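Subject: Protein entry, chain in single-letter code together with its fold tokens

Area: Proteins and the way their chains fold up in space.

Attached in line: The record itself begins immediately under this heading.
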Amino acid sequence: MGRYIIRRLLWTVFIVLLASILTFLIFFVLPAGDPALRFAGKQPTEELIAQARVNLGLDKSLPQQYWLFLSRLIGGDEYGWPGLGYSFHTRDAVLPELIDRSRVTGSIIVGGALMWMVIGVPVGVISALKRKTFWDRGLMGICLFFISAPVFWLALLSLLIFWKHLGWLPGTGYVPFAQNPGQWFAHLILPWCILALLYAAIYARLVRANMIDVVSEDYIRTAWAKGLSPRKVVMHHELRPALAPIIALFAIDLGALVGGTIVTETVFNMQGLGNWLLIAANNNDLPVTMAVTVVVAAAVCILTLIADVLLAIIDPRVRLQ
């Protein structure tokens, strides 16, 4: 197991390094025109362009520019670690803003992920066990509705019902947990539910399909023939292998949501990474866009590493391949 973790860790380091190279090429090399002009913001001045040229080391060769980019990223800069520079739109350092907004996005993602796993996996199991019955068709019909429903429509509808008409929840905005835990929870419950309804529907269908595939395996028939209890057969022999691809997908979804909660954050007026990325794109603020891109890539790689380790624990065959 230790050798497997070391191999996966080294592979993750290689992927992160490759992601940094691709990020550098996308932002510095591939677009036409002067990189300093692009990084200097939507309405650049000569001073900003000159400052961008110095900060990015554009007077050096491409390998030297990449080395400068990588060394600042790994070693930090005058604004802290990792070295992400400063926004040419607000003139503020990127790192402190990134940390503050990461707390908002992290709160949304973690709460929503827990809810969609708690809902999606049991629904998928029930649907698989009650295959071709009223419960199966009803649950899968509800899942299909939430998969098809636009996220912004569900978010606006939830605000209309639970905030505007019923007055049960405080509406939009974000309150830090340290400031008021009760208000933190009250402001996040609707974003959690919106994410949970969408992803729980997807995961329920995947769990159902995986369990139906597993049921036809020889070892499942052997387990029933040995006289094991239905609960043990379902939990230990059917559900466990069916969850393996779910864990891999879960890691990818979490990483993608680091910068992919744009609609949810915008509708609920939460100043997270998704909302920040949208503002940066509108203002042509490439330092912020690049910083979020690097964070998302690193998050996907790290979460994939964690998923690989969990898969090896669930299915020992994985570490032997």
In short: The chain has two domains: 2-75, 97-316.
